[in-house]
Amino acid sequence: MRLGLALGYWGRGPDAGHVPLAVAAERLGYDSVWTAESWGSDAFTPLTWIAARTSTIRLGTGVAQMAARTPAATAMHALTLDHLSGGRMLLGLGLSGPQVVEGWYGRPFPDSPLTATREYVDVVRQVLRRQGPVEVDGRFHPLPYRGPDGTGLGRPLKSVTHPLRPDLPVLLGAEGPRNVAQTIRIADGWLPLYWAPSRPEVYGEAVRALPEGFMVAPLAQVRVCDDVAEGLLPVKAMLGFYIGGMGHAARNFHADLMARMGYAEQARRIQELFLAGRREEAVLAVPDAFADEISLVGPRERIAERLQAWRTGPVTDLLAVSPDPHTLRVLAELNS
């Protein structure tokens, strides 16, 4: 199992520790470093900054939001950074949810998310393979555009720049079983959310028969500490925000996933508290058991024991969320 460092996205401003952490992770033998985006900093610019200060660690977007860019623009970002980094790019994509797609990007959330994702990946693949002009007769991402409000002058184009790697890996963030099954069919890897090693069945039967070389790269908060309950508080804070605030009360993919994992009543309670403005209570309402099973928290010996479960399943890459250099070093030692 390879290790990755997941840096996420910025808060109020740039995190001065991100580049030193990425450099430290590379020295410790970590295979990859990942950035993300929500509705603030973008995923590609910080990753380029890190690329300029490292030499071997692979560079992933975990994830770049599809609504933020047309698929052709995303492919341009990916092939550019792949060239500049010497072939280290991993393109992780995610659809996000209606609240972000419509509230931030000002676009309608697709009524068929699977179709929209499939078309998006098709365009990206065509750009990167550069076997001919890009053409997609799609509902959501048609190329050329032939809508009634167009000029009719668009024509299929082929990238001027030759991609460094036509097979640049494309990974997808997916939560529902149907989405996961499609991800396994059309992508090179999957970025699971809330991965619990003891119950992969939550994501559907497709997880039991993965193609050779297919990446399964879940994020997990990791923290070496003496007090497990205290160490779980950052995990619960993240879950409280995602379950309670990253989506509408009637349509929240994160809450749905928590419910499928056996915490339906708790997920509803977290949403109620968060949407009522009682955020601290929402965080405390996250069950310790749920936070614990999707993270690696506690003394070194406890993490070493629990790490075995991550190794025995389909996980190929563990993406550690940890701002602590000591924790990163311990995890590297335990995984060696």
UniProtKB/TrEMBL annotation:
Gene3D superfamilies: Luciferase-like domain. CDD domains: Tetrahydromethanopterin_reductase. InterPro entries: F420-G6PD/mer, F420_OxRdatse_Rv3520c_pred, Luciferase-like_dom, Luciferase-like_sf. Pfam families: Bac_luciferase. Residues 18-315 form the Luciferase-like domain. One of its GO terms (molecular function) is oxidoreductase activity, acting on paired donors, with incorporation or reduction of molecular oxygen. It comes from the Bacteria. Keywords: Oxidoreductase. NCBIfam families: F420_Rv3520c. PANTHER family: 5,10-METHYLENETETRAHYDROMETHANOPTERIN REDUCTASE, PTHR43244. This is LLM class F420-dependent oxidoreductase. It comes from Streptomyces broussonetiae.
